[in-house]
Amino acid sequence: MSIFKPYHKEVFAKFSDRWGGVSNPPYHELNLALHVGDNPIDVLKNREIMSKKFDFYIDNLIYMDQTHSDNIKIINDTFTNKQENCDGIITNKPNIPLMVMVADCIPVLLYDRIKKVIGAIHAGRNGTFKSISKKAVFIMKEKFNSNPEDIVVSLGASIKSCCYEVGEDLADIAIKSFGDKYVLKKDSSFYLDLQTLNFDQLKKIGVKEENIEISTICTSCDKNYFSYRRDGVTGRFAGVIKLHG
Ligand SMILES: [Zn+2]
User: Fold this and answer.
1) How confident is the model over 202-223, as pLDDT tens digits?
2) How far apart are the C-alpha atoms of 50 and 79, rounded to whole Å?
3) 72 CA distance to ligand 1 centroid (A)?
């Protein structure tokens, strides 16, 4: 990830892939999610492996009970590790790593380089249709006085329009709600482009185009990542962001 590179002394931000963990198939190897049927002992071991690799304190890790909502929570000093019923977390507190887990949905990491505020967002289809990335920037503006022009954003590996086929009903909803540029038609099939939709929503609220990075990886094409669409029962990889102390 290049977009966070100039700020590496202030913020840590990275995405995992599926390798280097202890889970057995179909969750092999580095499954980070407790809710997908994997052995919890393996998942906790995987999280510990990731915390060592990413150099954060595991007891401070914040993760979400993700529900495809647009609920976003602000994390303060007194936190519980698991945040119920939300798909976005934001903090300005150092040494609290925020994690978003995915297998096709878009993991979005945000950083306000002036106000030193970070966010981790789960932008699947529902979240994107509810403009959750844009809402995150709005909350950063409201609660932390962020200027969107100071915010850098990275969209991690996720299912792309090469593989994200949807039915005509859903294609229609997307076209009516957002425009036809986000729906690709190939023969008689429809494919959604959620990355561009997030990109445009972020631009609309004032994030600069050059401050938005989109991973070129499609999770359904690339077997180094978990893909729900490709594999059904599978693990989750993650985006993690943390302000240094
Ligand atoms: Zn693909």
Assistant:
1) 999 999 999 999 999 999 999 9
2) 21
3) 29
Q: If you measure from the C-alpha of residue 81 to the centroid of ligand 1, how many angstroms do you get, rounded to a whole number?
A: 33
> Does this model's pTM top 0.90?
yes
Topology classification of domain 5-160+194-243: CNF1/YfiH-like putative cysteine hydrolases (3.60.140)
**Alpha helical stretches, state H, 125-193:** 125-129, 132-144, 168-178
CA of 156 to the centre of ligand 1 (A): 14
Flag whether pLDDT at 1 surpasses 80.
no
Cα(47) to centroid of ligand 1, in Å? Answer: 27
In sequence order, the 6+-apart residues with CB closer than 8 A to the CB of 138 are 205
**Rounded mean pLDDT of 87-107?**
98
161 Cα to the center of ligand 1, angstroms: 7
Ligand 1 centroid–CA 165 distance in Å is 10
Distance 217 CA to ligand 1 centre (A): 8
What is the sign of the dihedral through the CA atoms of 217, 221, 225 and 227? positive
Task: Report the distance separating Cα 89 and Cα 36, nearest Å.
Answer: 21
Expressed in angstroms and rounded, the spacing between residue 159 Cα and the centre of ligand 1 is: 6
Instruction: Evaluate if residue 50 carries a pLDDT over 80.
Output: yes
Instruction: Give the model's pLDDT for residue 78.
Output: 84
pLDDT mean across residues, the chain: 97
